[in-house]
Amino acid sequence: MAGTRDQPVVTDLASVFIEDRPMMDVRAPIEFGQGAFPRAHNLPLLTDEERHQVGIRYKEAGQEAAIELGYQLVDEAEKAERVERWQAFAEAHPGGVLYCFRGGLRSRLTQQMLHEATGIAYPRIAGGYKALRRFLLNTLEEASPTAPLLMLGGRTGVGKTPFLFRFERYIDLEGRARHKGSAFGREPVPQPQPIDFENQVAIDLLRLRHRSPDAPILVEDEGKMVGARQVPPALFERMSRSPLVVIERPIEERVEQSLKDYIIDLEAGYRETLDTEAAGAEPHVREHILGAIDRVARRLGGVRHQRVRGMAESALDAWYEHGDREGLRELIRVMLVEYYDPMYDYQLRHKRDRIRFTGSPDEVAQWLEARGLRAR
Hints:
The chain is an alpha/beta fold. The chain contains 17 helices and 13 strands. It is globular and about 70 Å long.
């Protein structure tokens, strides 16, 4: 760490992510909302409106005039409140860092104001958000082509995502995207911003390769999109050429797994997000499931779409009115056998040359462990 005007500056960007250091993001809220980093907290130097006005003054009259306007816009009481928030963060996270967009004026002013008021010398990131973002994009481009990936495949309902968690080294793309990757895969909480998703995946890859550059990394066999989020192209290219292992489970087990993943856990997610009971979550669950069926209406075909939608309505009525889940199980069985399985089997035929092993979850786990993927 080098010093600038007696204030510490962090130049080792990799260490910030590898060590999972907390970050004080002093950009305006609108900037933070467009993309940030997992450990970042937005404690802005300027509000959105203040930033807008200062930006105009900077373009018209230069840096000194912009700084002067900034001091005019923020009165002493508000300045003291902002410094107090920065102090609380710095004291709670002594190993953290701060940054603005380019690591320039705003982060230096924050450092200066914090130090003058409290004596705390809090390190700032050289190059700021822009440098951190560029570093992660470079990580994806440079680390992906040689990443030792092992792809995990299997029909819907085999439990691929829980299987990942049996091992130490994996990238959970669906978890990072907050989406299960199908028409029914939307979560109660919104997907992250595209930049946030990309940043998190890059950080996962960076940490895994830092710890053991050549050890296998397990990744679920996804398409280019996980919901509305694109898998970083360099990583997807590597995924599309990596060896594949395939989990197989009996249809009844897949029905039960799908019931848990796509309905039971879904309702629990809505109840938690909305802070409500089952009755409060019911309209959201109904809209979610029926909306997903409608989104695949074209692929189902008109007659089958109406049949499946009717099954769903009846099944949801039975569940919410009588606690009966048998209709849901039959709905899932029909969707698996008539819709998802044919689609998956068609896709798998184009990947036959990459398949290295097929078996039950335990058999696949044993095969992976024999090739260096350590279980938890």
